[in-house]
Structure formats: structure tokens, C-alpha cells
């Protein structure tokens, strides 16, 4: 500030930089989080105008109460087989995550990302949608693949970038893609998949199809322009798409306040764009299922998109390259007031007499054995540490449908270089 | 055969392809009812309906990204970016997503899509309606980059781009939409009607992507050009009385290396011209290719004739524009050395 611009009678401006409630060493305190009782929110008719969801975006759709009972108008009334299948998928995701995390620590791959505490968000959504609907996931929705019976061995081969890797060692571990399972390629450039999902859904509408799309994005990445373009297009063209914001409150070390999460809810973004919005207890598989089914029904009835915020907590680090104790209190995940999604669904099944400790234990062991067997099979095809995918010629394939001269020439250079080594 | 200017030829390419293939959809700013600010999509919405030709929000990222989603679904979208200068909000979606999808999905998700965009200056468009950003895209894997220079090629190349199973960036030289421009801004412009390349066949035909054309045969020096600069090169060769061979590249990725090599090895001299800024422009790539492949045939250093490394100016756009006054001396120098 120089003399000419000085205005001593005006208050000095100051920049507000949001800070999380607790840093390492602080006592974690979630008591300020407003949690409405399960079953307390009304469920608008599927055909209701988008504006009828307006107050729901500031609250939380919850179905499972503290004792594991399913209560209120959002209870999706699922049959026990579906409930058991969802529990099994969520348990499998957790076992798989633990094995792959350990494999990374053992040097068998470069990178891994767990979704601990967020298993319900992918698994319940997959079960609430149809098998031929398409998913545009971000990087913590491995549950979508598990729920669609994608082979564990192929998932592991992708993580290992080995000879069995369907993506030929080209993608960072966990950036799965499988057209046959309706699972679109994951991008490390965050938020890009959301407007793409909208485009896919618009295409489905253009062709008079009945399939719909769903996208997932983290709280942090909603700050990207891609997200805002996506919601604009989705609203404008009434695209048959479900836009899921997984608010796990942490973007690597940055808390959700830096993405605007302290100003309003992420679900409330829907209000400004004039589309339907729901805010859901992301650790409640039945609430996730119910919200997804509601949004899917709307989309399939030409009533347009729904933005669903799944309120949850990132229990583990961002990835194997991250140590969350450097920026947030240790053990915060265990204190998350919405509990553990696997345990909550288990308690529900037990409470309705469709599950018991013995079966739970047996399933846990069976899943562990299944994952171990898959891991042996995957590792027989190599790991990043030894025997990874290394067909040099393949490096130059799939850039274009046909290989132009410059890539043929560079392939020959690479092959010659390899022979010299 | 009908005489068409470049806009009419491009419009006809859309029409021919949309008639044949119900999976082709057109989106972009003002492309629907109005038919585009340059009229390239005029009449298409009326003929093919609002679900196949529609206006998009002013959001280039969203236009490119939704086109990617549509291509992933199985459509063949043709997206218009109103001016090439506006393409940058969609840059990440083009280079990180469209250009890599086939590769990162090991061929499972090819993206047959075209992004059309008018580029280049000479219309008093100032900094934000005049740029030539082709080099950014040529630098990145997985994107084909096509730049026609006349109505016949414009239609044939756009049809080839729509039929291509990879993302194609289609840069349209807007200064020559209505007539070839020889770079003399103070002289009257001849309309396309007087040019043989305005004889555009009706119906379907295509011009192959990746193949250059010899716009003028010559022995003394090779001029590598594309888009508007093809006409500047032809006019300058005539004005200077130089027996130049003008290669119209038509595609810069993949570039027609055989045509370049054959010509430069014949003439032994090479001048590269483009309207874009000089540093790290596509001319640098061309000069490097010529040097690598034709060094022992060269009689003189390769010369670049380009726009200056400044933002495209408004009032002094003809000072910026690489017209005959810049190319002429470069040709003479190439011949003297």
C-alpha cells in the first residue's frame, strides 16, 4: 500500500483461510456435527419437482438406527439375500484392500488406495442400479467392481501391472477400467469423469435408450470446473445421470473447508443448479441404496439428474504415499459418529434374524481365503517388483487405431535400444 | 458438383454424414437454431432435430467432456468450439482424456469424435479471436490434427475426420472461409467461386487424413504450409517469380513425412510458414524433421516464417501476420545461401 492508496479510516482487509477443527495432538471432537435421527427425513415422491428436495440437502437421509433397525420412509425394504450380498461385497472390499495395501508395503506394486469406511457408498449404489447402467467412478469405488463380480484376479493384475493386467501396465494401480462391467476408466486428473458421465447419459437419452449413468467425485474435486460444467449440462439437458459426491472430508491433507465445505453442504450445490439433491449418511448402506434407487427412478423417468452427497469419513490415509498423522489427529476415523458401514449392516442383519456371529466369522474366513487364492493366482503372473508387463512393442499400440509412421519409427528405436541393454 | 465456399463445404460434410449415420450429433455454442456464428451448421437443426444438433452452454470444458461421454456411449459427436482461442478450458479434457482414452483402456474405449474450431487471424479479432493453437495439440499423443486450405479438402477431410475412430481436432482457417487469402490485406479478395478447389462434389467423398497435397510444383525451394498460409505461399511464389514447390500439409499429426522428404530432397531448400507464434511452434518440428532426414540434400538452412512471439494484436494485426512481405525475403534468402 502506498501513500496515495492509504485510507486510514477504513478497516484493514484480512484473508480468511479455513482451518480444520483439529490438528495432530488436538483432541478430535465430532460433537458439532448435526446428525438427525434415522428415519426422520421425509421421502419426496420420485416424480416430485427438484425443488421439493430443497431442505433435504441440508440434512441427512438415514435409515439404520443405533440398534441396527431400518426405520422411516427411506427404508428400501430389501430382501435378506440382497442385504447379505451387500454385506459380503463390503467385507470383500475390505479384505481386498488390506491385502493390496500390504502388497504395496511388500514392494509388489508402487501405489494403492483403500476405501476403508466408504465401502457402502460404492457397493450399495451398484446394487441399487441395473447391471447395464454405467459407472464413471473416481478412485475409491472398487466396491462397484466387486458388486458386479469383476474377477479379483484381474483387479490384482491391474494393481501389479503384470502380464495379466488388462490395461497392459499403462495405468497407475487401482485406475481400473472395464467396458464389459460398465466401469469407465478412472482418471488421475480429478473430476474429468463427471461431465463425461453427463455426456454418456445425454447420448443414452438422444438414442431413446433406457440405461442411465452414475458418476462419483470427492469433496475436494468438486472445486474443479469440470464439476460445475457437469452439473450445468446435466441440469440443462435433464441428463439421466446420478452425480455422487463422496464427502469423506479430506483431500490428501486438505480438509473439505478448502473446497467450500464449511460454507454450505455439497448437496446444496444442487439447489443453485435447480436439480434434485440429497444428502445421505454414507456409512449407512440402506440409505445409500435408497437414495440411489430414488435418483435412478427419477433419471429413468426423464426427470433428470440428482446430486447425492454421501457424508462419510476417510478412515485411512489418502493413499500408500500419504501419512495422515502429519495433518490430522490420530485415530479420528474410529471416532466418526456415523460408525462403520460394515458393522452397521451386519448389526441390521443380525437384528432381523438373518445373520449371526458364526456365519459372519465363517464368511470373513472364506473371503480371506478367496482373496489369498486370488492373490496367489495374480502373483503367478508377476508383480511390479518382478515380472511386470514389459512388451515393449505394446507401448506404441492403442495411441491411435492404426499406428502412424512416427510411432512405428519410435517403436523400432525402443526395440533396438532394448536389444543394446 | 456444386461451387461452394469453405463454410458451405463444411456444412455439406455435416449434412452428408448426418444423413448417412444417425449416431452423429452436433453440439457447440450457437450451433443449433442459429446455425453457428460462422454459419457452418446452418439448417442442420431444422433438418435433423434438436436432439442431434443443439446449443451448448458457454463451457468449452463441458462441450469437450460431454462429447467424450457421447463417444464412449457409441455416438460420433462433432463439437464446435466457437473460436480456437476458446479451446483452453477444454484443454485438459482433450489432451488428458480424449487423446489417451484408447491407450489407457487398452483399446476398449476408443473415442470417435471431432472437435472443429475456426482458427487464425486477419479478421480484426484481436487476441481472443485470432490464435493458432495447433502446436499444443500436435505435441500431445493420441490426437489427430487436421487443417484444410480449400473447400474441396475441407469437406473431404471433415468427412474423413467424422469417420475416423480417433479424436480429431479440425482447425478451420476462418480468414479463408469465404475466399482464398493471399496475404495482401489491402487488395480486394477473390471469392472461392473463382477458384478450382471450390468445385465441391455433392454427396460422400473423403480426403485421407495424414496425406499432404502438392499445391504448386516447383524445383527451387520447398514451402511447407497449411491452412491460410498455403495461399500466402502460392501468391508469394508468383509475386517473387520463384519456382517454389508448395506443400499443403493438410494434416499436421500424423504429418506426411514422405511428401516432405520427397520435396525437400528434390529442391534442397526449405521454408516453413505458419501463422502461430514462432517459439516451439509446429514449424520447429518441421524444421527438425527436415534437418534429420534431408540434411545432406540441403543447400541452405531451413527458415521459419511465422507470427511473432507476442499476443495477436488488434490494430496492428497486419504487422503480426506473416504475409508476402515476410515470406518473400525468406524465400530469396533460402535461394541465396
Give a short summary of the structure.
The complex is a heterodimer of chains A (421) and B (337). With 421 residues, chain A is of the alpha/beta class. Chain A is built from eleven helices and seven strands.
Number of strands of chain B: 14
CATH top level label of the largest domain in chain B: Alpha Beta
Count, helices of chain A:
11
- CATH hierarchy: architecture of the largest domain in chain A: 3-Layer(aba) Sandwich
Low-confidence stretches of chain A: none
Helix and strand content put the structural class of chain A at alpha/beta
Reading side by side through the largest sheet of chain B, how are the strands ordered?
A: 3-2-4-5-7-6-12
Strand content of chain A: 5-15%
Count of individual beta strands of chain A: 7
Helicity range of the residues of chain B? 25-40%
CATH homologous superfamily (4th level) name of the largest domain in chain B: Thiamin diphosphate (ThDP)-binding fold, Pyr/PP domains
Which second-level CATH architecture of the largest domain in chain B applies?
Answer: 3-Layer(aba) Sandwich
Structural notes for this entry:
- The complex is a heterodimer of chains A (421) and B (337).
- Chain A folds into 2 domains: 32-319 and 330-390, Thiamin diphosphate (ThDP)-binding fold, Pyr/PP domains (Rossmann fold, 3-Layer(aba) Sandwich); 391-421, no CATH class.
- Chain A is built from 11 helices and 7 strands.
- Chain A has helices at 80-105, 119-128, 142-147, 152-160, 193-206, 225-236, 269-273, 285-300, 341-351, 357-379, 405-420, and strands spanning 134-136, 213-218, 241-247, 250-251, 254-255, 276-281, 306-311.
- In chain A, the strands form 2 sheets. Chain A has a 5-stranded parallel beta sheet with strand order 1-2-3-7-6, with helices on both faces. In chain A, strands 4-5 form a two-stranded antiparallel sheet.
- In chain A, helix 8 links the parallel strand 6 and strand 7 (306-311).
- Chain B is of the alpha/beta class.
- Helices cover 35% and strands 17% of the residues of chain B.
- Chain B contains 12 helices and 14 strands.
- Chain B has a 7-stranded mixed beta sheet, with helices on both faces. In chain B, strands 9-11-10-13-14 form a 5-stranded mixed beta sheet, sandwiched between helices. A two-stranded antiparallel ribbon of chain B has the order 1-8.
- In chain B, strand 6, helix 7 and strand 7 (168-173) form a beta-alpha-beta unit.
- Chain B is globular, with a radius of gyration of 19 Å.
- At the A-B interface, helix 5 and helix 6 of A face helix 3, helix 4 and helix 5 of B.
Amino acid at each position: 500500500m502506498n501513500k496515495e492508496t492509504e485510507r486510514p479510516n477504513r478497516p484493514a482487509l484480512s484473508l480468511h483461510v479455513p482451518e480444520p477443527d483439529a490438528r495432530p495432538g488436538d483432541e478430535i471432537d465430532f460433537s458439532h456435527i448435526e446428525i438427525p435421527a434415522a428415519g426422520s427425513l421425509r421421502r419426496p415422491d420420485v416424480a416430485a419437482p427438484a425443488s421439493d428436495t430443497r431442505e433435504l440437502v441440508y440434512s441427512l437421509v438415514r435409515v439404520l438406527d443405533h440398534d441396527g433397525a431400518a426405520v422411516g420412509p427411506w427404508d428400501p425394504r430389501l430382501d435378506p439375500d440382497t442385504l447379505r450380498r451387500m454385506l459380503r461385497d463390503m467385507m470383500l472390499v475390505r479384505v481386498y484392500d488390506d491385502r493390496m495395501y500390504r502388497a504395496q508395503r511388500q514392494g509388489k506394486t508402487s501405489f494403492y488406495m483403500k476405501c476403508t469406511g466408504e465401502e457402502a457408498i460404492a457397493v450399495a449404489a451398484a446394487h441399487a442400479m441395473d447391471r447395464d447402467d454405467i459407472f464413471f467412478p473416481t478412485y475409491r469405488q472398487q466396491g462397484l467392481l466387486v458388486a458386479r463380480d469383476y474377477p479379483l484376479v484381474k483387479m490384482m493384475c491391474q494393481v501389479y501391472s503384470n502380464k495379466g493386467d488388462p490395461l497392459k501396465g499403462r495405468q497407475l494401480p487401482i485406475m481400473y477400467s472395464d467396458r464389459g462391467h460398465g466401469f469407465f476408466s478412472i482418471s488421475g486428473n480429478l473430476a474429468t469423469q463427471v461431465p463425461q458421465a453427463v455426456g454418456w447419459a445425454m447420448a443414452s437419452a438422444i438414442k431413446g435408450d433406457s440405461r442411465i449413468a452414475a458418476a462419483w467425485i470427492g469433496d475436494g474435486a468438486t472445486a474443479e470446473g469440470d464439476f460445475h460444467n457437469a452439473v450445468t449440462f446435466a441440469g440443462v439437458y435433464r441428463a439421466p445421470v446420478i452425480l455422487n459426491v463422496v464427502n469423506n472430508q479430506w483431500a490428501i491433507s486438505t480438509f473439505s473447508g478448502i473446497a467450500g465445505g464449511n460454507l454450505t453442504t455439497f448437496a446444496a450445490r444442487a439447489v443453485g443448479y435447480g436439480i434434485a439433491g440429497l444428502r445421505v449418511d454414507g456409512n449407512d448402506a440402506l440409505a445409500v441404496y435408497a437414495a440411489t434407487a430414488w435418483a435412478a427412478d427419477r433419471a429413468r423417468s426423464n426427470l433428470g439428474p440428482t446430486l447425492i452427497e454421501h457424508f462419510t469419513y476417510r478412515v485411512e490415509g489418502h493413499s500408500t504415499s500419504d501419512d495422515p498423522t502429519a495433518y490430522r489427529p490420530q485415530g479420528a476415523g474410529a471416532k466418526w459418529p456415523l460408525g462403520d458401514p460394515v458393522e452397521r449392516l451386519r448389526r441390521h442383519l443380525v437384528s432381523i434374524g438373518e445373520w449371526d456371529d458364526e456365519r459372519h466369522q465363517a464368511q470373513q474366513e472364506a473371503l480371506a481365503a478367496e482373496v489369498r487364492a486370488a492373490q496367489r493366482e495374480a502373483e503367478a503372473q508377476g508383480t511390479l517388483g518382478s515380472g511386470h508387463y514389459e512388451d515393449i512393442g505394446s507401448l506404441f499400440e492403442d495411441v491411435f487405431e492404426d499406428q502412424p509412421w512416427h510411432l512405428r519409427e519410435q517403436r523400432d528405436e525402443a526395440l533396438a535400444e532394448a536389444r543394446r541393454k | 458438383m456444386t461451387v461452394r465456399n469453405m463454410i458451405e463445404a463444411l456444412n455439406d460434410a455435416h449434412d452428408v454424414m448426418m444423413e448417412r449415420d444417425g449416431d452423429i450429433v452436433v453440439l457447440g455454442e450457437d450451433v443449433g437454431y442459429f446455425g453457428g456464428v460462422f454459419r457452418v451448421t446452418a439448417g442442420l437443426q431444422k433438418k435433423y432435430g434438436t436432439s442431434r444438433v443443439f446449443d451448448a452452454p458457454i463451457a468449452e470444458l463441458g462441450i469437450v467432456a460431454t462429447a467424450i461421454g457421447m463417444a464412449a456411449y457409441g455416438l460420433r459427436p462433432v463439437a464446435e468450439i466457437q473460436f480456437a482461442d476458446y479451446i483452453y478450458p477444454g484443454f485438459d479434457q482433450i489432451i488428458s482424456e480424449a487423446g489417451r482414452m484408447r491407450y489407457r483402456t487398452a483399446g476398449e474405449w476408443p473415442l470417435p469424435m471431432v472437435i472443429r474450431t475456426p482458427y487464425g487471424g486477419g479478421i480484426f479479432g484481436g487476441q481472443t479471436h485470432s490464435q493458432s493453437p495447433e502446436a499444443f495439440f500436435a505435441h500431445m499423443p493420441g490426437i489427430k490434427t487436421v487443417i484444410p486450405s480449400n473447400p474441396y479438402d475441407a469437406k473431404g477431410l471433415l468427412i474423413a475426420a467424422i469417420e475416423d475412430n480417433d479424436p480429431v481436432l479440425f482447425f478451420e482457417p476462418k480468414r479463408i472461409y469465404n475466399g482464398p487469402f493471399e496475404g495482401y490485406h489491402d487488395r480486394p479478395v477473390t471469392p472461392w467461386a473463382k477458384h478450382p478447389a471450390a468445385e465441391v462434389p455433392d454427396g460422400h467423398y473423403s480426403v485421407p487424413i495424414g496425406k499432404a497435397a502438392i499445391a504448386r510444383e516447383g524445383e527451387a525451394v520447398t514451402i511447407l504450409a497449411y491452412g491460410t498460409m498455403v495461399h500466402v505461399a502460392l501468391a508469394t511464389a508468383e509475386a517473387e517469380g520463384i519456382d517454389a514447390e508448395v506443400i499443403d500439409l493438410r494434416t499436421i499429426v500424423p504429418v506426411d513425412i514422405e511428401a516432405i522428404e520427397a520435396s525437400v530432397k528434390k529442391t534442397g531448400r526449405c521454408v516453413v510458414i505458419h501463422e502461430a507464434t514462432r517459439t516451439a511452434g509446429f514449424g520447429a518440428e518441421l524444421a527438425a524433421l527436415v534437418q534429420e532426414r534431408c540434411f545432406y540434400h540441403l543447400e541452405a538452412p531451413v527458415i521459419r516464417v511465422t507470427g511473432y512471439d507476442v499476443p495477436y494484436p488488434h490494430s496492428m494485426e497486419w504487422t503480426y501476420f506473416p504475409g508476402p512481405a515476410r515470406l518473400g525475403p525468406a524465400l530469396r534468402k533460402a535461394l541465396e545461401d
